[in-house]
User: Fold these one by one.
Assistant:
Number 1:
Amino acid sequence: MMMKATVSDTSTGKVPLKINVFQFVQTANAQLAPMFPYTDPGAIVPCAAAFESDGKGTHIGYFVHENVVDEIVINYANTGRMRTGDVYVGPKEHGVGGDSDEAYFAVQVITQRQLEEGEQSEAMAFNCENCGTEVYRYRYDETEGNVGEIAGLSALPTIFGSNSFALNVNANEDLRTCKSCGHVSRPFPLHIWGWYDYAFRTNVARKAVEEFEGAIAS
């Protein structure tokens, strides 16, 4: 099964691209990893995610995501609450993740179209594990992580913003302490979501491109 999309390439115009979803998630380093190297304003950005729960208490993590653009979700394979083949458009503010007492796995493609102009704001909210009260919200826009294109390398601001959100939550116990019930929630399991790896590797790749181009020019 192939994931097909048409994306904008400023050098050649419209170029049809395709990729095998299951092969892509095998090597993807983050949830919501862009499947094609186009994340600029106006781009259609298919992203992949792969989850699994053993049903025995594995802490997957949960957050609420707010976006000003629609996100279209295709379930390529799912043994959880959603069915394989389900397609839906989620609300602008929606929950993501969540622990489960039943074993399941899921491979999804989440597609959003970046705004062509204007501020594209997003937010991540962390809720109390005990009572569900929101205890922390992190808001960001398309400038998060200075993700402008460098030498053909582009990056998705959503992942940089998500990484900043998770690092803040994990570094500060006060951001995990509920003002309603006093419960201190567990740190967010960033290793499952991979956002730090994506941001780290993106920054290394950009530095490497700049070094490479400098070596050529010298």
Number 2:
Amino acid sequence: MKILIGEIAHETNTFANEKTTVESFKEWEWIHGDEILQNHRKVRDYLGGMMERAEETGVEIIPLFSAFAMPSGVITKETYNVLLQELTNSIKAVKEYDAICLALHGAGVAEDVDDLEGGILSAIREVVGYKIPVVVTLDLHGNITDQMVQEADVLLGVNFYPHVDCFERGIEAIDITRKILSGELQPKMSLKKLPLMIPTSTTNLPPAKNINELCWAHEVNEKIIDCTFFHGFPYTNIPEVGVSVVTVTNNDQELADQTAEEIALEIWNTKEMFFPDIINPDEGIKRALKIEGKPIVINETSDNPGGGTPGDGTHLLSAMIEANLENACFSFIYDPEVVNIAHNSGVGATIDVLLGGKTDDLHGKPLKVTAYVKTLADGRFIQSSQMGKGAKVNYGKSARLVVGDIDIVVCSKRSQTLDEQIFLLHGIDIRSYKIVALKSSQHFRAGFEPLAHTIITVDSPGLSSFNLFSFEHSRLAKEVYPFKKDVEFLQKDKVK
């Protein structure tokens, strides 16, 4: 049994100004063949799970092409075509194989292509036809489309946000593929789309937690192979954006339809719970200072590079400096210009710089600060978060600056803060700090919930704000909640 594996992953924030290019992917991952095995073996991600299960079960895996770019703006048409070429050419180069397992995302958008994943799968089918099983893992923030369902045999979404179960979905992809090839499984899929958009919602708390538990209760039925609540990615201005449910059964279309509809109805009945009141940075800091114990983690959800934002927003950091905080740290802000100044000046230097705020005005103005250069580093470490644990991370040259009594880590590559490793790289033990600030919406929880006394989420203007009304969704195919409060959910709108 030979299974081809590969990955093309991008979460596209269409409201971001900067386009995503081949260089954007190459900054993070653009690899072929055996290099995929080297980079992902024993890593808790989709490909790592596929590899481990294949090796356990004696399946021969043939790595194709893997490309990943940090969430950002629309993918250029040229880049889209190159991605398709790289993947399809790598398939054509293999003479014999039985199936394909792919790690995609579900919220990719390219110029003139609203559905990146549907386009990828369609291109693959042109090469392999429809007799070769194609099993796909997806992010739960996927905006799932009819084309994805039509072109794939099985779509598997992660259940958790933070995505700590990518590895398990990779394992499941191999198991399901083996069952399809053996004739044990004849998958039938049902997609139920809701007229609903929600902000990013962690799954270890209601209401998302409750929906997941309902999905799992249905999966006790041995005929139901998978049932996934896809939250959708609200920061995309495309017609098919929003919440959906995908159910996969063993040769029972009616059961798939019924189950997807039942889950969708429960989501709809609890939709108001997905819109919590979020406070601003000033309020978050005041609240943190009133709490006894440490560390108090304050996450800035509105400038989350994991959602396609610049990562150099200054709203929270500015509020921290203005509050004259003591025993506080911030990691990290993206500013390669300041990093270079710090490295050129050296440890022990005092530098006057404009920090952050260089991408746009939305995320805050540059901060004029006098900073002491405490430490310098190369930005490299091994990820410890259960989300992607074992991955080799490189944030580029970085620096720890001290402004007043606040330790600030500055990096030269954009990313959200997933675990404490970037702090530790600069000698910061967050357990000894009262306030620990970072940029992330939910993924940070995998690494920081075990360490934090309390977590406080703050929001402000930004491209990943919880305030969905701050985005102009001008291309919606139909009216959706919360923009239209009295929109109806027509249960009879089943989609195969």
Number 3:
Amino acid sequence: MSVAPATAAELVNQIFDLQRALRCVTMENAKGQEAGLALQGVLKFIGEGQTRATHLAERLGVSAPVLSRHIAELEDMGLVIRTPDPADGRAQLLRLSPKGEQKLAYLVERRAAALASYLADWNEDDAASTGAMISKLTASLRKSIKDRESGTTHESNTLQESING
């Protein structure tokens, strides 16, 4: 099972178009928020569960100094708490404060409401099937990237070449 190069190229174009549209929607939704988009992204990932900063930097694809500035800003806002890692006294774990949990819930609710308003001409089935396809695409890309990093598949090289165009 393989995707034709022309189909992959068109999918890449569609994904780029989607990214641009989402960026516009996100920027519009972020207006008036004290936490900018980067901070909201960090908040979201910390909200997925207590984590080390090094693991978080890896997931976000940012350097430790950049993440450190974001975490310090979120701490100053009272949204994030650092605690010592019981498994490694030199490391710290990050988690949301109760205020951070409330802020994240508010942001998620606000984003969902904004997206629902943008998709007013969609029905529930359209939204659910699109969500399922996006999840499938994300899982396939993550698996291919992981396989490529471990050197276990040729198909992932082809995917990466298609993505890099």
